[in-house]
Amino acid sequence: MLGALLVDLDKEVTVERLIGYLWDDDPPRTARSVIQVQISHLRRAFPDVIQTTAGGYLAQVEPDKVDLHRYRDLVARARTAGDPAEALVLWNKALACWRGQPFSGTGSDQLWYSVCRPLLEERWAAVTAWAECAFSLHLYSEIVTRLTPLVREDPLRERLQYLLIAALSRSGQRASALAVFHETRQHLAEELGVDPSPDVKELYERILKDTETGVDGSLSAVRLVATPADPASDGRSDVAAEPSSEFVPRNDLPRDIPDFTGRERPLQELIDIGEHSSGRAEAVVIAGPGGAGKTTLAVHAAHRLVEHFPDGQLFIDLYGFTVDQKPLDALAALGVLLRAVGVEPDAIPESVEERSALWRAMLAGKRVLVVLDNAVSSAQVSPLMPAAPGSLTLVTSRQDIAVVSGARYISLGMLDEESSLELFSAILGTARVEQEPEQAQVVVSLCGGLPLALRIVGGRMLSRPRWTFAHVEQRLREHQRRFRELRLDGHSVEAVFELSYQSLNAVQQRTFLFLGIMIGSSVDLHGATSLLKYEPPDADDLLQELVSVCLLEESAVDVYRFHDLIGAYARQKALEIIPKEDIEAARRRMAEYYLDMSQSAADLMGPRGHDYERDEAEISRYRNEISCRAEAVAWFEVHQENLVHALDFFASDGAGDASWLLVDAIWRFYAFQGRTELLITIQGKALEISRAQGNERGISIMLVGLGIAHCLSGRFETSIRFLSEALEILNKIGEERGVLRVYGNLGMVYERMGRFHDALSCAWKVLERAVSEGDRRLEVMQRANIALMYQVLGDYPKAIEFCEVARRIVVEEQLEGDAHIPRIMGEVKVGMGEFDEGFRYLEEALKTAQTLGSQAQEIYTRNGLAIAFREFGDLDAAVEAHITALELGRSTGQRSGDAEILNELGVTYARGARHADARDSHGQALDLARERGERHAEGRALLGLGTLPPDIIDRDSAVEYLTAAARICGELGVPEAEAAQAELQRLRGDA
Fold first, then answer.
1. How far is the C-alpha of 676 from the C-alpha of 665, rounded, in Å?
2. What are the distances in angstroms from CA 27 to CA 4, 5, 7?
3. What CA–CA distance (Å, rounded) separates 153 from 317?
4. Which pLDDT score is estimated for 609?
């Protein structure tokens, strides 16, 4: 009764109709009383819903609270939706309102014919409209999944049979499509004695002949309402403005040493070079052993020359000779330097060449002095060299490196006795040295003329007025064998380090030792506070005190590291003195700091793939707040190696949750850098711990990460295995966000494998949820992915349509720009012969990719530009752009697009009659595609080889290649299948 009233919401349902619904033509004598009693019960259960009318009753309730009326509203909105993507989401929501048959198991024939059957017809109409909409969007796998059980419910629905057969054919299931047709024909013959409709029979004939070129033409058109253009727009998309970079003069030289001495001759040489401009860019290499005072000389000279370089004095440590620290490569160093002179992080290019060019451009016309400290090779330094006339670059290194032609060289050895004594006199005063000349000479000898050792000894003596040189000699002799295995350029520094340690007060000693057991090779201020359990101001004072006695280096603002040998000494000393439990507790605090900070930084790097909240107790009290994406990237850049060591600590400590949480936070940064093998290693460690502890969430998230990493590495079957296992677990534990992430990444894998319809299906699952939840950022991402699938499948209008909607959302929501969308737009426009627009979109995409630092997008965009040049007729520019894309992929470790680029390069070579080069390029693409399981790339490579002239590829081989290409591309449902068939027919016709 309640259902009957709700069907006709806000309308009177007479008592006679209710009686007919319940008992047909044979009601009991008490029928009216039964109805009155049931109405009374319903009113108690649902107050204010049922009203009495003159002839019966009516129900009053909000329509959206009744599934039928909610369904009808969604249907109406779907039919008028201008965007097929929006329409499909609405159709899915409408059909989701149905659960089984209406009024199932109750009522009469009158209820069936007057209410139930019309409702079911509404449902079939909605299913048909959904299928037509999905077909127009190439969602063939979704159609097959939904219609297969439905057509068995009512096999006489020929329209749905037609759509199912067409979808099976389009998704590469030709045999299944033919089987469904035969089943349909048999059922119609047995039940009605008729044949299938002409449309269905025509479709069958086309599939049977394998000459179908598009079933869309036989479908009822889905009318799309075009979105009117913005009246304020001139019809052209705004190209993202290039971020401006204004040169910022600065002096970031380290603190000068007032008692500099012992290097008068090389110092004067540097002063002369700096004061007397030669009208060209000057460079000086200061070479010598570690601890010889190369940096001291360079910095002191730079401070003396400040007034001669008014546009800035820059300093960067390249970590060329540092234990447990990889040298800073030119790419990273240029990033630091460009940020230092005012370039916004998002405006820094991705490649070394482009960064170097921008660096030189920023310094053009400027008089700057640059100190490149601790260099390891010319390859590291050459891209950093300013070219501006009047600039001066000082390079310090333990090796004589050839930086540029015309560079001057200064070689520093150990200080001689006279210079060493002069240094002591400058620190302690001449009188104190002259009181013990012989003992002072002995101390100089024990220090080996190493300026670092001399300064440490002099500093300690200055703060200990009662110490004599004789006393220092005794201390050095006592401890000189403790550090026997650690030598610096043939000189033992154990005595120097031990003396320095013994001279510290108790708090300083504790600080020094705990820094010795830090996780990783560097520590920032807040990391040190977690390690030491001090408040930041106290920790800062102690760190600066250690810096002042040369036991610690401040490599960047609030970032500290040990000199390599001093760090080794500190670790050895700490293990001897600090109780094991205290060491473990300190390292745990530091590891938790890295976990907390990585979570905070990851939140700013992009959408998180999973929903989880960390316990408030796990958040470090020593947190350093990060406020923007640029700061997050910078933090990861500084600590990337330390984070790997933090994971090792958690793994050894059996901290399962911490392990997977840390890896999940840092994966995006490592993937962004192309360090996929490192990703696989660290995720494997975290997965092993999670499996051992039965942690399903940790297992699933690490499986997703491994799936992504293996996809980036080209191991697609392995990727699918990991992602499928993750999907099963995430569905089990009900983590919907993680499920969406899996579908998104499965789509990426399927796309690389050439399973485009499966990729499209996955992307649609994510898009529907994004639209339903109003997640505009995720919606934009999936619309771009779907547009890419339509582009590959040859449906250019659909690709353009989805890109335009995505671009509109980006503007409306003020989202961060992405190179993916303009790249697809540009490639599609080129494919349609609209070159002006195509080049404009591709140039926008390239600029955006470089601004965002997206290496992968830059690679694909450069390949897109190469195709545009080729189709435009500029073959030389096309070849150059293809090769640039390949080289960028090799230099950055982003190799996933190599097969695609090699195929396009082969097409370009063939267009220019360079057939041998085309054969080699397609051959490389074929080998790579087969190795990686990229079937679309394999099909295209075979097609390219099969179309080469007979003097390059003989006829039998060409037929073999083309036959395989037609089979593969036909199975994938891509346009290249027709090209392969046409070439085969041409070859057979020639024969």
1. 15
2. 17, 19, 22
3. 73
4. 59
Contacts with 913 (C-beta within 8 Å, 6 or more apart), sequence order: none
Give dist(CA 908, CA 901) in Å, integer. Answer: 10
Give the pair of three-digit tokens for residue 304.
């003396």
Give CA–CA dist 481/850, Å, rounded: 54
Confidence of residue 564 (pLDDT cuts 50, 70, 90): low
288: left (phi over 0), alpha (psi -120 to 50) or beta: left
Quote the CA–CA distance of 740 and 719 in Å, as a whole number: 16
Q: What is the CA radius of gyration of the chain?
A: 37
Confidence label for 231 from pLDDT (cuts 50, 70 and 90): very low
**Residues contacting residue 275 through CB under 8 Å, at least 6 positions apart:** 305, 308
DSSP-derived secondary structure for 685-741: HHHHHHHHHT-HHHHHHHHHHHHHHHHHTT-HHHHHHHHHHHHHHHHHHT-HHHHHH
Sheet holding 408-411, edge to edge: 313-317, 369-375, 392-397, 282-287, 408-411
A 10 A CB-CB count for 63 gives 13
Distance, CA of 827 to CA of 821 (rounded, Å): 10
Classify residue 349 by its DSSP letter: -
What the block records as the tokens of 635 is: 């933090």
Nearest-angstrom CA–CA distance, 214 and 309: 70
Q: Which of 197, 440, 243 is nearest to 346 (CA)?
A: 243
Q: What's the pTM? A: 0.59
Other Cβ atoms within 10 Å of 675 Cβ, number: 17
* Angle made by CA atoms 628, 631, 637, in degrees to the nearest 5: 145
Judging by beta carbons within 10 Å of its beta carbon (0-12, 13-18, 19+), is residue 678 exposed, middle or buried? Answer: middle
Angle at 391 between CA 387 and CA 393, to 5 degrees: 85
Distance CA 570, CA 561 (A): 12
Q: Are strands 313-317 and 369-375 parallel, antiparallel or unpaired?
A: parallel
Alpha-carbon distances of 280 from 380, 382, 406, 407, 502, rounded to whole Å: 22, 16, 10, 11, 50
Q: Are 461 and 495 in contact (CB under 8 A)?
A: no
The DSSP 8-state label assigned to residue 853 in this structure reads T
Q: Three-state SS across 911-949?
A: HCCCHHHHHHHHHHHHHHHHHHCCHHHHHHHHHHHHCCC
- Asked if residues 658 and 648 have their Cβ atoms less than 8 Å apart, the reply is no
Report how far residue 21's alpha carbon sits from residue 114's, in angstroms, rounded to the nearest whole number. 9
Look at strands 408-411 and 282-287 and give their pairing.
Answer: parallel
Cα end-to-end distance, the chain, whole Å: 77
Comparing CA positions, the residue from 294, 253, 267 lying closest to residue 397 is 294
Sorted by sequence, the CB contacts under 8 Å of residue 30 that are 6+ apart come out as none
The answer to whether 521 touches 528, Cβ cutoff 8 Å, is no
- In 3D, which of 786, 754, 788 has the Cα closest to residue 767? 786
Q: Which of 190, 262, 252, 227 is nearest to 427 (CA)?
A: 262
Residue with tokens 């509404």: 122
| CA gap 325, 322 in Å, rounded | 5
Structure tokens at 84: 């097929």
Judge whether residue 48 has pLDDT over 70: yes
Predicted local distance difference test score (pLDDT) of residue 497: 60
Residue of 346, 151, 169 whose CA lies nearest to 245: 346
Token couple for 481: 């064998």
For residues 379-402, average pLDDT = 84
Query: How far apart (Å, rounded) are the C-alpha atoms in residues 670 and 679?
Result: 7
- Cross-strand partners of 524: 559
- Under 8 Å between Cβ of 412 and 451: no
How far apart are the C-alpha atoms of 386 and 389, rounded to whole Å? 9
Amino acid (1-letter code) at residue 144: V
pLDDT in tens, 450-496: 787 787 778 778 878 888 898 878 776 765 543 442 233 433 455 44
Listed residue (825, 899, 901) closest to 863, CA to CA: 901
Q: Nearest-CA neighbor of 742 among 611, 856, 610?
A: 610
Query: Which one-letter amino acid corresponds to residue 844?
Result: E
